[in-house]
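Re: the request from the purification team.
They wanted to know what the chain is likely to look like in 3D before they choose a buffer screen. I agreed to run a prediction and write the result into the notebook, where they can find it.
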Amino acid sequence: MLTLSLKEKVIELAAPEFYCPNCHLRRPYEIKRASEAHMIYAILFFEAQDLTQVVECQVCKNGFDPDILKPSNRSLFKLVAATRRQLLDGTSPGSLKVKLMSDGLKEEFINQLISLAQN
């Protein structure tokens, strides 16, 4: 957590958070220089570039492609989290697939979504 002091008034700034694909929860992160010590999580939706920086989850310590912080990718992982929650609450993958297809999502995307949610 960052602390900022302004003329004796201390303000604590919340650490930035992201949806960690490994923890399946919102977690604090830091952007760090990439090294061999960082394990890059393989995400089917990203094409890994020449990574010089990684987003490191401060809980599980896994490193991720910085593209994970893009707004469109954040939305994707929120969808994965919602899918995971439905599966954990007892919805079968088949009935969830039918529901998502009726909402207009394509079958290939739904299959990848359910696969990510089950991991």
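For the purification team: The beta strands are 2-6, 9-13, 17-20, 25-33, 53-57, 63-64.
Please add any questions underneath this entry.
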